[in-house]
């Protein structure tokens, strides 16, 4: 075999693992795992395909500029409230995720809920966290222009604990899971 052919075969063999599917899942202790095999008791969910040899981080889009009418000069009370609510929501989210994990693990140990129920609750929290605009400027813009953004941010900023947050967001089974 010629060196050129051997090099081509070697390149093909090395490139194959780059196209493998990657699974992300949390175990009973809340630890995140990345594997090439589906997690135990998995169910199909829609995921993003990563390009072979590409980056897992999507390209960062330029931050949209706020419309001229949005300013923090006190002239727009909705903008001012949005800025305050967003600041509170961004600060609270990690605390609520931690509470969800702690209460959920305890409930699973006491057999009040199943591991599957905890996984669903954590998926909802992760999904909400991904959708949360984590820069105060972006969050405030979303708060002003979107009723849905305003509703989720208000729930996060104004509720005292995980249970009331889930009820406010109308997450199915939330109250039964974290009662």
From TrEMBL:
Start and end residues of each stretch annotated as Disordered: 33-76
**Domain of life of the native organism:** Bacteria
Q: Does the keyword Cell membrane apply?
A: no
What does UniProt give as the signal peptide span?
1-20
Keyword Signal on this protein? yes
InterPro entries, per this entry?
DUF4124
Q: Write out the biased-composition intervals (Low complexity).
A: 51-64
Record-annotated DUF4124 domain positions: 10-63
**Keywords assigned by UniProt?**
Signal
Q: Please state what the protein is called.
A: DUF4124 domain-containing protein
């Amino acid at each position: 075999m010629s060196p050129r052919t051997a090099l081509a075969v070697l390149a093909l063999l090395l490139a194959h693992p780059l196209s493998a599917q990657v699974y992300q899942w949390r175990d009973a202790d809340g630890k995140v795992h990345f594997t090439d095999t589906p997690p135990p008791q998995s169910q199909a969910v829609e995921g993003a395909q990563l390009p072979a040899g590409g980056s897992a981080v999507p390209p960062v889009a330029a931050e949209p500029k706020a419309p001229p009418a949005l300013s923090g000069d006190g002239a727009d009370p909705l903008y001012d409230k949005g800025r305050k609510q967003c600041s509170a929501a961004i600060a609270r989210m990690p605390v609520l995720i931690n509470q969800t994990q702690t209460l959920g693990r305890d409930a699973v140990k006491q057999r009040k809920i199943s591991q599957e129920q905890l996984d669903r609750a954590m998926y909802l929290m992760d999904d909400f966290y991904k959708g949360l605009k984590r820069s105060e400027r972006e969050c405030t813009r979303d708060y002003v222009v979107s009723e849905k953004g305003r509703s989720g941010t208000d729930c996060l900023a104004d509720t005292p604990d995980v249970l009331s947050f889930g009820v406010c967001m109308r997450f199915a089974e939330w109250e039964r899971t974290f009662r």
